[in-house]
Amino acid sequence: MGGKLFKNFSFFSATISFFILIGIFSILFTYAQDSIREFGFDFLGSEVWEADEDDEEIGIFGGFIPIIGTLLSTLIAMAIATPLAMGIAIFLTEIAHKTLVKPVSIAIELLAAIPSIIYGMWGLFYLAPIIQSTFGGQGVGLLTAGVVLAIMIIPFMAAITRDSMNTVPDVLKESAYAMGATKFEVIKDVIMPYSKGGIIGSIILALGRALGETMAVAFLIGSVMSIPSNITDPTTSIPVLLANNFSEAMGLEMSSMYYLALVLFVVSLAIISVAKFYFLRQKVK
Amino acid sequence: MSNLIMETKDFNFTYAGVDDPSLKNINLPIEKNKITAMIGPSGCGKSTLLRAMNRIHDLYPGNKYEGEINLYGAKGKENILDLKKENDLISLRQQVGMIFQKPTPFPMSIYDNVAYGMKLAGVKNKSELDGRVEKALKDAAIWNETKDRMNTSALGMSGGQQQRLCIARAVALKPEVMLFDEPTSALDPISTGAIEELIAELKKDVSVVIVTHNMQQASRLSDYTAFMYLGDMVEYDKTDTIFMNPNEKLTEDYITGRFG
């Protein structure tokens, strides 16, 4: 009797997440209908985002700028974070003395626990002026957002990469050393290829995170509807545009924002699926 | 005397963070072009001793060596415990190869696995590499099975093939000594037979030290046998003597299966 109840309950719990996923997708898709019908795929390449002066219910809306802003800030973040995260993981698994591994690991995991708004504030008040005086621009912009995003995804990437490097069997490393390999050669020829799946998986998961990050980027990217011509220029990103405009938008603009949300949802979902199912599968041995 | 390739003299080894030495006063000669087997119950220190002979213990900090381990290589007598620089250790490991309990193919093609050590040693000439890879694979009796799939991943081979590949990989470096750490313990009987045949062949060119749990293997394969117990070298002699007429009661008890 109790067993059956428990079974039904756990079945319900397990399926609910699936239905939430479908539910969100269908809501986004339904509300985006007007915009999809109006602009079709041209939406993705159009730079105009303007409500009609007389009727706020209509207008011309295109997602190119926030899409480009999202992609560029993410790209900058990945370019900075990937080498650093690899360095951290290699340091922790192969180079650091035992007594150092724990404190550094904990510090990195704590970095991941900082709420994103704190990164945003720190970036705005501390990092933005530094970037302004070093690279020019207005302080807020693509580069600042990218750098802070990088700092936010490094712990994540480093932790997954470290875990995956830790699965390299000692005896495999030993046999490379026994062939006369140096530490660097062991890392390059054995550890990196062996944990390649985990490394790529961590990069892709971090990518998915960076794409969807809202709060910190909202502080730092400038929230301006313009195409950046320079790396320090302000622009906007999909989550930032959505967060900033939701309270005021109506009609077609609202629908276009659902369209943007749908684009982000599908891209993030695709990225995470690829990472999870292709690269981070448990190796069957 | 002049037939020695290696010897340990009053050798002590202490693992990091442990007070008592795991190996005590080990004196073991390794004869040139012979097979020396080390037997003894688990924890007796035979693998520890083997792993000292190419200083692979150095990968983990804090381990302590005392005494001498001499290598009579191309450069003449050399106490390998005196080596400090990474380059010297690398050259030691090129002279003293090692095969592990489990096959350890690298995540690369069959060809690259065998060529790997030579590339590390600086061999760049493609035709020389090709020639030495082929020779090594022939020496390891695996050429026929691999010649048509040199560029496929070594991870797709069977366990026995992988272990022979690892032997080929080590042989390719033309080492003076090869250390085998229970090389057949993860293999089926047929693969085990193939590896044993191979080791017997190898002694034409290299001196072999093999750690084994399998006493039949030691008696079939080796010329000399050392019996170790709790970190001591109890007895070392010709294999026939150890198995037929051991000096020590402890050796006899172990050989006849009374403990271990």
Question: How many angstroms does the end-to-end distance of chain B come to?
Answer: 33 Å
Beta-strand content bin of chain B: 25-35%
- CATH level-4 homologous superfamily of the domain at 72-240 and 272-279 in chain A: MetI-like
Number of H/I helices of chain A: 11
How are strands sequenced across the largest beta sheet of chain B?
A: 6-7-8-3-9-10
Mean pLDDT of chain A: 90
| Main sheet makeup of chain A | 2 strands, antiparallel
Fold and architecture overview:
The complex is a heterodimer of chains A (285) and B (260). The model of chain A has no long low-confidence stretch (mean pLDDT 90). Chain A is mainly alpha-helical. Chain A is globular. Chain A contains eleven helices and two strands, in the order αββαααααααααα. Chain B is an alpha/beta fold. In chain B, the strands form two sheets. Chain B has a six-stranded mixed sheet, sandwiched between helices. In chain B, helix 4 (126-139) crosses helix 6. The model of chain B has no long low-confidence stretch (mean pLDDT 93). Chains A and B meet through helix 6 and helix 7 of A and helix 2, helix 3 and helix 6 of B. Chain B: Pfam families: ABC_tran. Chain B: This is Phosphate transport ATP-binding protein PstB (TC 3.A.1.7.1). Chain B: One of its GO terms (cellular component) is membrane. Chain B: It comes from uncultured Sulfurovum sp.
